[in-house]
Amino acid sequence: MTVPSRVPFPGQDTSPARPAPAEFSRSGPVYFGAGCRLFGWYHAADTARRHCGVVFCNPLGYEELCAHRALRHWADAVAHAGFPALRFDYDGTGNSAGSDTDPDRVSAWLASIEDAAAELRARSGVQHIVLLGVRLGGTLAAAAAERARADGLILFAATARGRPYVREVLALGRLMHADPDPTVAPSPDNGEEQIAGFVMTRQTVADVAALDATTALASVRRAFVVPRDDTGADTALAERLAKRGVDVERSALPGYAAMMVDAHESAPPEAVIEGSIRWLTSHYAVSVAESVGPGACDYGLVSGPVENEIAESATTFGDDRLFGILCENRGVRCGTGVILVNAGSVHSVGPGRAYVELAREWAAQGFSVLRMDVGGVGDSDARFGAVDNHPYPDHAVADIASAVRWMIDRARVSRVIVAGLCSGAHASFHAGLEVDGLAGIMVINPIVFYWNPTCALDVSAWTNYYESRRYSQAAREVASWVKLVRGRVDVRHVASVAYRRMREVGGAMAMTLWQRLGGRGTDGENVGDDLARIGARGVDVLLAFSEGDPGLDFVRRRYARALRLLEARSANFALRVIPDADHTFTRPAARRRLAALLSSHLISHHAR
Fold first, then answer.
1. Which H or E run contains 421?
2. What is the distance between the alpha carbons of residues 208 and 475, in angstroms, rounded to a whole number?
3. CA-CA distance, 407 to 301, in Å (whole number)?
4. Cys-Cys link to 97, which of 105, 305, 369, 456 (CB 3.0-4.6 A)?
5. CA distance 209 to 144
6. Which secondary-structure segment (H or E) carries 225?
7. Is there a contact between 156 and 134 (Cβ–Cβ < 8 Å)?
8. What is the bridge-based pairing of β-strands 310-317 and 301-307?
């Protein structure tokens, strides 16, 4: 690969990542709750263990994807200070069983918090529980405090009621649907609110709006409240808690805005983390009691829920540095394994929880599916000296090779397919070049095939094609010319887009001519030649793009002839285009079209 090591990028901490200290050796993935439906991650405290444990109550939906890695670092810091901690996914979210369209979501989420508190008590033996909630997770934590018998609350960017949260996320969801691709019609919502790839049913919207964080606080003695730093300070929550007799410390600390950005840019809220630990240590003394329960068990493979013969298990592999969730069918197995690699820095659930949906669908068809986190992303440890949370780490192919060996040895498959979206597509492409024994790769919406430090990490930086396409469409409409005449069009911006597009097309023509003369790109890069090399190794290749995706425009401009020849001459290469879909398949209907394409390819090419 051409990706150099230790490459810093905007918004990231460039200090060397530290290996996990020995005192966290009993930390790892856990399943709990009725039927082991809930997935979590237990962080064991060090030898200076406190009387108190901390349950982390995630934000919901897209906000959880943004904050996931930051919350892992927060839980590590809390455990290092002596407080056993449990991060977990609510019922129907993340890696837990269920779906966001199931009924009674709010009731299920509150019950999940109660189960998580009971699990932490049983696993660690602590006397007191503090619920730490972020955004809606904070509102849910306070609403569940009495039933969870929580002694304290740490609330970060939470609201006193659910209604303001509902207004904000619904506005976000409708804003995202306000400017669809002009070449396609908008999808119907079927009575559901679609918010950045996640769904809220009408019942869920109504139940979240009815939430009140200050009605069930009989057990709560104290709270540490930190408002958002990107809007005016909200004092309502702290004031209402104080009126209910809770000892409230309110602290205006930075960190929310830097955490709630795209996952690859998200940074831990260091000031808030330090403030929360100071508050915890000031109220909860050191304990001399030993841990009880299953805290010291082997986390090599942890069994989770089984529904309709589909079983999920959490695993660590690659010297226990890497993490993944294995989904398989206990009744029917076709002997083929699929590895899903992170999309950007989104953890193993995938954008909009797409990887969970795909894994469970494929497992029902007999495939064994591992959705993995590469090192430094999601719940996998970073390699020593590597940049944390980088979507294009130079060790991604080595991590995939470890996953392939694990799938053959432990999941007992005879064939392995590697698939991924965006940066996961990049990693899958290079795995096809470098990892021996692969049966196939499914490369979905790569925005770049050879990442290097000059490449942008944000998809928006690659979207000049989208803009030029939109303006080209608008130029055919009378209404657009009326706007131009009335001075309602930014002519300078339109001209800039057109100029950049001309440069792209001109560069592509020059590159195509250079390739026909036998030349290659910088550092010997040539997508067409490398795809042919992958096919020559006996690896089946599916290249899938959303219609209008920047990556599709790139390969069509520069490698159209090579791709036509590959499709004509090779039975193990296919390029497919998915209509009415954005880069991360935000709309559920687009994800269903993607799933149909990938499932059809898997069954026709790899089912045995």
1. strand 415-421
2. 44
3. 12
4. 305
5. 16
6. strand 222-226
7. yes
8. antiparallel
The DSSP bridge pattern shows strands 38-43 and 85-88 to be antiparallel
Residue 19 makes CB contacts below 8 A (sequence gap 6+) with: 381, 384
What would the two tokens of residue 488 be? 């309602």
Positive or negative CA dihedral for 599, 601, 603, 607? negative
Pairing of strands 336-341, 368-373: parallel
Helix/strand/coil percent split, the chain, to 5: 40, 20, 40
The predicted model scores a pTM of 0.85
- Amino acid identity of residue 302, one-letter, is V
Give the helix/strand (H/E) hosting 542: strand 540-546
Tokens of 14: 């460039």
Query: What average pLDDT does the segment 363-374 reach?
Result: 97
Is 83 within 8 Å of 52 (Cβ atoms)? Answer: yes
Cβ burial, residue 408 (10 Å; 0-12/13-18/19+): middle
Bridge-based pairing of strands 415-421 and 336-341 is: parallel
Q: Are 315 and 323 in contact (CB under 8 A)?
A: yes
User: What does the block give as tokens for 289?
Assistant: 């009691």
* 3-state SS record for 556-574: HHHHHHHHHHHHHHCCCEE
State the Cα–Cα distance between residues 45 and 85, nearest whole angstrom: 8
- Closest-CA residue to 368 (of 410, 425, 397): 410
Confidence tier at 234 by pLDDT (50, 70, 90): confident
Q: How far apart are the first and last CA of the chain?
A: 32
- Supply 161's token pair: 């009621």
Written as one letter, the residue type at 193 is E
pLDDT tens digits along 520-552: 545 458 999 999 999 999 999 999 999 989 899
Q: Coil, strand, or helix at residue 600? A: helix
pLDDT value at 107 more than 60: yes
> For the chain, how big is the Rg over CA atoms in Å?
25
Q: What domains can be seen in the chain, in order of their start residue?
A: 27-179+190-288 (3.40.50.1820), 301-459+525-606 (3.40.50.1820)
Token duo for residue 271: 């000031």
